[in-house]
Fold this sequence. Notes:
Elements: E1 9-14, H1 29-44, E2 48-53, H2 70-94, E3 99-103, E4 112-113, H3 116-124, E5 128-132, H4 142-152, E6 157-162, E7 167-168, E8 180-181, E9 183-185, H5 186-191, H6 199-207, E10 212-216, H7 222-227, E11 234-237
Parallel strand pairs: 1-2, 1-6, 2-5, 3-4, 3-5, 6-10, 9-11
Antiparallel strand pairs: 7-8, 10-11
Helix pairs in contact: 1-2, 4-6
Amino acid sequence: MQDPPRFRRILLKLSGEALMGAGSFGIAPEILHGLSEEIAAINAMGVEIALVVGGGNIFRGINAPEGMDRVAADHMGMLATLINSLALQDSLESVGVTTRVLSALEIRQVAEPFIRRRALRHLEKGRVVILAAGTGNPYFSTDTAAALRAMEVKAEVLLKATKVDGVYTADPKTNPNAVFLPRVGWQEALERGLRVMDSTAISLCMDNKLPIIVFNIRVPGNIRRILVGEEVGSVVSE
């Protein structure tokens, strides 16, 4: 008999870039399908899943063209996250997963408005809840949105999907001397400027005692391994 998963409810933070695959823009269908199958497998384990996906594969507010108003650019970035959320919803439902997209910006034709109690009811019913449009406010990243939503839906852990194996002392792609850190404290991550999430997101998690697990989403099965208790990635906690 299989042991129960170590977390009953999770929030999974995906970057928009995770959907690109080897491309430089847009969504790679094979990546989307692979992610959907992995999420379907952990949903079948009885884990309640909330998802926050970025929009960097389409548009990132902080990289807006020179002269563009930051507020307008951030709203465009929020809409990019909604595009990714709808793509993820379609892909998940194609593999038999019931989903709901809840958006911080009201676009009722394509998504439900984010209402905390509604999100909780969907999770309790076993639906995968995709939380789009960040916080609905400019100047806040999707990292911060993920931390905020994790607290709101009472997730037990925030899983931060990346393209590297976890937290390093420096960028391992550019610094061969970067050291892997299997465990690190929230305060240490802030003080050392480790690129776990942005400082607002880390501070939110620290204030509310929410652990973060940073792992490589490009290794198939990593989410399931985390949930069954294997040592995967880096844990950011006390």
